[in-house]
TrEMBL record:
Domain Glucose-methanol-choline oxidoreductase N-terminal: from-to ranges: 260-483
Segments passing through the bilayer: 28-48
Residue sites binding FAD per the record: 213-228
GO molecular function, one term: long-chain-alcohol oxidase activity
Biased composition (Polar residues): 125-136
Name of the protein this chain belongs to: Long-chain-alcohol oxidase
Organism: Rhizophora mucronata
Entry-linked InterPro entries: FAD/NAD-bd_sf, GMC_OxRdtase_N, GMC_OxRtase_C, Long_Oxdase
Role played: Long-chain fatty alcohol oxidase involved in the omega-oxidation pathway of lipid degradation.
Amino acid sequence: MHGPKAYGDLGGLISERLKHPKKWMIRLALWLLSTWFGTFIFCGVASISSKFPYFQSFSQISQQQKEEILLAWSMSFIYPLRMLFKAAKLLCLLVYFSQVDDENENLTWEAIGYPGPDPQFRAQTSLQPKLSQASPHGNRRANGEGGGEDKEELEVLFGPLYRGLVNMNLPSDMVADTLRRSGFFTSVGRKDRTNAGNGSSSSFSSPSLVIQCDAVVVGSGSGGGVAAGVLAKAGYKVLVLEKGNYFARDNLSLLEGVAMDQMYLSGGTLATDDMGAVILAGSTVGGGSTINWSASIRTPQHVINEWSSARGYGLELFGSKLYREALDAVCKKMGVQSEIDEEGFNNAVLRRGCEEMGYPVMNIPRNSGPDHYCGWCCLGCKDGRKKGTCETWLLDMVNSGNGVILPGCEAVRVLRKRNKRNCRDTATGVAFEFERLKGVKNLCVIESKVTIVACGALSTPALLKASGLKNANIGKNLHLHPVTMAWGYFPELQWPDKGKKSYEGGIMTAMSTVNVDFDDKGNTSGGYRYGAVIQTPALHPGMFSALMPWVSGADMKRRMCRFSRTAHIFALARDRGSGTVNSPSSISYRMEAGDEVNLQKGLEKILHILAAAGAEEIGTQHCKGKTINVKKVSYHEFERFVKEESAKPLRDLSTQICSAHQMGSCRMGLNPKESVVNQMGETWEVEGLFLADSSVFPTALGVNPMVTIQAIAYCTAQSVLQLLSRKSSINV
């Protein structure tokens, strides 16, 4: 395979994209394995040959011995060896099955029954050369400087947001002119300030560009997008900073490796410091709402009760009329509904298995229509029918004429000044960087009346710390909604219908709460529930192979040849355990024993569901890779398998744990000793600095968080509107 466009190659991924704090261990291990003495240290007598010179480097060992060594590492009592195996497995398989050649093909896809990008979308790939020329990040036409025909073409190609995108790659004078035409006062420095990322006072005092606005919003996802839309529609001038770039509709690749590299934090290679959990988070215009799985579930009532009641967290906001109005408003904006015209492979298996077992199963509300049958939405929505913030709140902002988006720009510090009147700091804006030339960063400043940080639970704490905030809770209390999966193989000639494939159809349409015990309105039989909901994932070949157990090359080949007819179902825990965000790439997290038990109970239910739905063979993601042919064993043999597999530990790297939801790292509360923000979303330390993302959750939520993030951001935006109104009155 030549000219890969996904991660390039494994070496390039490790050296350029991987940001894990233990990366030095991987590099050291790879170097040692290239030597005979290092190989002997890692592999022992298995690396010794019967022929002179006896000692071998890893590359000289036979294929069979290599596989035996790797398998031994996966179950070693030496934790770093298990970490090394886990990292090697994840990275190698992810790259191998997701990289593409110059024709956007992977030689394995035909063998495993995978078409690559959505076949309905493939015809549009011929537009790619045209897209690169018309990109809003590299062409003046995208800033509205072309004729009417150009504008119409760009809207077809990119969607309506292109009119609100500012191309920071243009010379500063041209950027300033674009911003002025949008109603923002802008001044240009004497010369572009480059390599100013050291954060020195001189860097911030002489930026290449200074922009003034009413509100700056850092982040464009479910939190930042809502806040920006509400403020802009109210008539305030809003600037949105987004670290990621803009990819929408026909500008998408729908290639797994390419999309993860472009639209996910750290290219989709993020993991906790101990490799205990693989973490997926969006990093693109629209944030997680651009690449999530459409689930739009309201805040469960038992969570509202816990957050609002005196015996819980005492946050009256969540029991208020305003919060109920916010839930209604965001669901209406996204067109949330629960109907399904046709169910995809994984969800059909989940629903049928639940019905056969007598487990509760319900439709998942989604921000897309009943006919939205697309399994590629985790790589972006090709037609805009999934109503993330790019198609809703950010579009409101752009259409209002009061806001613009600056993609490819990373906030490095919240600026503040001392208020002599009350001896407190007040936020005055944000300093941000962007890369105009490779390796050369420019520093700019936004001066604002209000600053809203909505970078997500992994990035918001780092920005606050870099800005000098000292609250001890910043970065603490991180929850991950840990997930573990099981799988079932359904041969082509049996149900579900022969034409159905595991990667097609609505990603999430069915859900079971058999392990949670609350109804479709969120009511519980009493108390606060910390069980595990049961749902289905989106797994394309790269992630599928990275998560499946590896016991040998031949076994992995067999598993991958069954890819298109292998259903996955997962259990998602509302975790009591928590971790700490040290930086966006350094995350420490330890699952509590109670969370492990809830996932094990969920795993037991899932194995029963898969068998009841008609799976021929089932298994988990435990590293030993044990499976059972349901059709060929007795009832007692089956039950013994289920009991043994679901009881295996989940906290020792033997089973892959994943997270697609991060929350709570700057939680909301009643006092600064226990929280970072108050009920208005304003930080206790700095006036005029608001947080509007999942980091403010008081606890883990227990269900997909998009609606709850948007509802909280909507409420926070109302507080910001009140503050801006007061400031306007004072100025008058």
